[in-house]
From TrEMBL:
Name the UniProt record assigns to this protein: DNA repair system specific for alkylated DNA
InterPro entries in the record: AlkB-like, AlkB-like_sf, ALKBH3, Oxoglu/Fe-dep_dioxygenase_dom
Keywords of the record: Dioxygenase, DNA damage, DNA repair, Iron, Magnesium, Metal-binding, Oxidoreductase
Ranges where the Fe2OG dioxygenase domain occurs: 104-201
Keyword DNA damage: yes
Source species: Acinetobacter baylyi (strain ATCC 33305 / BD413 / ADP1)
GO BP, sorted A to Z: DNA alkylation repair
Cofactor: Fe(2+)
């Protein structure tokens, strides 16, 4: 794979220590982001996420869709999940991101938040299906949302507003030391889609 010299360059690490988060800013234009957003809203196989916590079964307002190179099956929050074959537009974006980062991704978890009252609680992407020092590329489409990191030991918080078309990349020890969350807000009335390209362990 060749490195694209004209590809967007990341800003310096957004985390002060114990991890590495790069901000590639607007990776695609606002117009392109809007086109992808409308397409994915319509064409991805959205379904409400499920979790089993303390013996109880929960269904989240947020919706998810999971795609992969192969038929992957993994357990997360006590629920078995299966990946779908790539959507062609998702594959185009994946290849564009891979070229910029000189990395390969074999799966994508898509999240759909209909409005600001839907968020994602504090968590790390550190389950058994990902390597410890995994790279995750996260592309935002649609409404701007507040995204935060919180260090597990020091509790220090780093906040950012993720905008449509913006790409951030989490690397290295980030998942071992930091949790992240999408904060809820009554003020956000528009939907948002997030695509996280991942390196699923085979
Ligand atoms: O919506 C986002 O930007 C965050 C998604 C996320 O945290 C995840 O998929 O693990």
């Amino acid at each position: 794979m060749t490195l694209d010299l004209f590809a967007p360059q990341p800003k310096t690490n957004l985390l002060p220590y114990d991890g590495d988060v790069e901000d590639y800013g607007c990776f695609i234009s606002t117009a392109e982001a809007e086109q992808y957003f409308q397409y994915f809203l319509k064409h991805l196989a959205w379904r409400h996420d499920e979790a089993r916590l303390y013996g109880k079964h929960f269904i989240t307002p947020r919706q998810v869709a999971w795609y992969g190179d192969d038929h992957y099956r993994y357990a997360y929050s006590g629920i078995m999940r299966d990946s779908l074959p790539w959507d062609p537009q998702l594959l185009i974006l994946k290849q564009q991101i891979e070229q910029t980062l000189a990395e390969r991704f074999n799966s994508c978890l898509a999240n759909l938040y209909q409005e600001g009252t839907q968020g994602m609680a504090w968590h790390s992407d550190g389950d058994m299906s990902l390597a410890k020092q995994t790279t995750i590329a996260s592309l935002s489409l649609g409404a701007t949302r507040k995204f935060c990191f919180r260090h597990l030991r020091t509790k220090e918080k780093i906040e950012m507003q993720l905008q449509s078309g913006q790409l951030i990349v989490m690397r290295g020890e980030t998942q071992q030391h930091w949790q992240h969350a999408i904060m809820k807000s009554q003020k956000v009335i528009h939907p948002r889609i997030n695509l996280t390209f991942r390196q699923f362990l085979l």
